[in-house]
Records
---
Amino acid sequence: MRLLLVEDSRDVAGILFDYFEALDYELDYAADGRQGLTLGLENSYDIILLDVMLPGMGGFEICAALRQQGITAPILMLTARDTREDTLCGFGQGADDYVIKPFDLNILQARIEALVRRVHPERFQQTLRCGSLQLDMRTREVFREGQRIILNPTGFRILALLAGKAPATVTREEISYSLWKDNPPDGDILRNHIYQLRSQVDKPFNKALIVTVPKTGYRLDCNE
Amino acid sequence: MNNTGRKGIGQYSRRSFRFQITSAFILMASVVVLIQMFLFGVAIKDSEDAVIERRLSLYRDIALRGFQYHMDNNGVLSIDSLTTAYKGHGHLPDHLRENINQGWHGVQEISLNNDSEEYMALTVYEPSVARDELIYIIENISQLEANEHQSALQVGVYSIAGIILFALTCLSMVFIVRRLTAPLIKLSHQLHHAESDDLSLLDIPKYAPEEVRQLVTNLNHYRQRLKHLIERERSFTSFASHELRTPLTVMRGVATLLTISTEPSFIQRQQQRLIKATTDMNDVVETLLGLIRDAGQERSVPTSIGRDILEQVLEDNRQLLTSKAVDAGVILISNPIVRAPESVIRILLSNLVRNAMAHTSHGSVTVEVNDQYLRVIDSGSGLNTQSQTHEGYGIGLLIVNDICRKYGWTFSLTGNNGQPGCTASVQFNPGPDQ
């Protein structure tokens, strides 16, 4: 789970980092409104946590700007402003949830997961399917037309990412970030991984599932 | 139905101003008309009597001459078809003699048979004509007066004319009152129909007299002040809410974090957060309580503003400079000693530093202190943007202003003489015992 936290209080940000990093969340942090907007526009996040009273640019403004720029990631306002008007304003600017400080970290986690589940239900599915392809997320086993396919961990992660978003295209940047975060290896290693994946998932069968979308990324064609 | 109520110390009526003023005008008009009619009737009557008296006075000479030259018929002298003179009370006809006392002298009207016969009587004493006797000049005025039918007709016509005149007067009153009260009523409607939280400016009603214009202007002035105060109160509440909820969030978060790890460095980090959160909360509570307490209620012990406080505040807010090419530093020329709690100094400085850091994207934020002043000099976006309230970040300056006013200091926000950014300055004006 990749999360952007825009919060001017270093201490509040600190407890959120300690809590969510322990759950293996990836967190990006901005203490300033403008910096938060830049990060929100530049990167793809599963969810954005926004404070309202921020230096540089207010949380409501950031929320509205992100929505105007077509960012559809769930936005959860995390704020001390508890009036009815503030809550309505937050939702009016495109927020998906509004949590008032002080909050319970467990409940915040539950709300975050509920919001992400609505946008990415595949993250929480035990089995992913695409045509005759089947991925068991619990045992990490892959089957196509009933035959078991043995994949290395990187291949499985790429295939799970493609199957989760199928038939939509997954960009090369998304796959790269998912595998290596902000430190991608030198050279076109991703192309090699895709080549290996195709040789195991598509080559033994009549129809190719993995489709290259030129200059963008890859997708799975589930219509067999 | 009870039409009066009590509000505050004055009684008030539930009837409208327009109704009251119209009623008062109509009542006044009615009284004036009735008095006028009464006076008019009395004047007509007096005028009639005066005319008859004058005519009888003229007949006096005719009667005296007639009696002097014995033109009378046994003490009775007919002057004209209506007027007769009688020499002595004994010569009066019976019906008149019974109603005129012997020895009466003067002028009077005599009514007989339920006002069907009316006479005017005048007595004359002239010894040369009638020794020891009065001469009575009697005029039958019954024939001069209108008969019952004519009287009724006259009364009817005059009554109808009176009623029409009265109705026209009332209508005129209503019209005039409506015109006069219309601006006030419009103003009242504007106020009555406005939403409870609508403090927008009121329109001056059309054709409003000077007093109503003045009233609207004063009301608008009052509404603007009220709006400003409400906005300020909201800002203050918002600040207090943010500043108190942030450490509470940390405390609650720490309570949860302590259940997920027993690693010593992790536990130690949470302890430090807890201590800082309680200090922050204490600072906010002390500052807010200080602001709402009466001035002069207590005098704080002198606090020396040292490098440690200044650098700690900069450090606490340094995250606002992440990814910015901004240097933050302290220039301590001398240590000022002020009569305010350290918590208040931290809040004041923290708000100034946060405001400066928030508005500075490159350059520097410098805290400069000597025994006269505390300055936060930045190279940021300048005065125009910093003085504006922005999602709570301008509220910090309002709190700084409140703190300065409370402790007798002077706060100012000025440009950097043509250089980028601005300078927030707090001048420590020494109090009487500082």
---
Amino acid sequence: MHAAVIVFPGSNCDRDLAVALERAGARVSMVWHKDTEMPAGVDFIGVPGGFSFGDYLRCGAIAANSPICRSVISHANKGGYVFGVCNGFQILTETGLLPGALLRNAALKYICKPVGLKVETADSIYTGGYDKGQVITVPIAHHDGNYNVDADNLARLKGEDRVAFTYTDNPNGSVADIAGVLSENRRVLGMMPHPERMAEALHGNAEGAALFSHVVEQLVHA
Amino acid sequence: MKARVHVMLKNGVLDPQGEAVRHALGSLGFDGVEKVRQGKVIELELAETDEAQARDTVTAMCEKLLANTVIESYSVELV
């Protein structure tokens, strides 16, 4: 399984994401934002956390219009897998691949702490390694993680079982406690919490590792 | 020609920064502030001299980059 991890100026979780994927058995290529094409044979694209382009204008807005993002969008439109964490989630909403937007946290503070995450659906390659309803502990680290989506899109997300994770104790004001959402074809996931930072024993727990191992297992056998 | 773009959170989207400003104004003794919305102003210096053309171009910039129309509204002013 060949994964690409995109690197923007200001990305700071790119290596964490690559290590989590590698430990799960993926071959990982780091791809610079000025590149216009993915390496040949990429099955999966990771859009990492960080502060791409200094969060100028809006979080993720500049990155979403960078050359490599055209390739990310076309990969997703062809049915490819794309996974965005934190700033990666913000970028994916800015591209329009995922609905909604991430606003400033309701309490206006940058929050960096482990949170409880409830797995709302096991029906995706990302969440299939967990049980529906299972609660895992994964850290968040963001200033703009307050997920906002209009009532129609919220009803659609719920009706189509596309809410992947919710917070057990909403830290940022997100609508319906939403921490992560899936695309219509369930192949694009964006989430604010960082499973790659809870992926081995030395991180405190390894509850994020099942996400990566399930992705790799599913794509190897695909 | 200069264009000024105003970007605001749409009505109905909670603006926590505006709310914080409203509270701060209240604690300074400015009573009667019922609502505060905070937005941004972006100024562009354009080579274009035709007003209609400039307005079209800046509107396209807003749709593509300057505003996120999922949560924000914008207005374009030529000055």
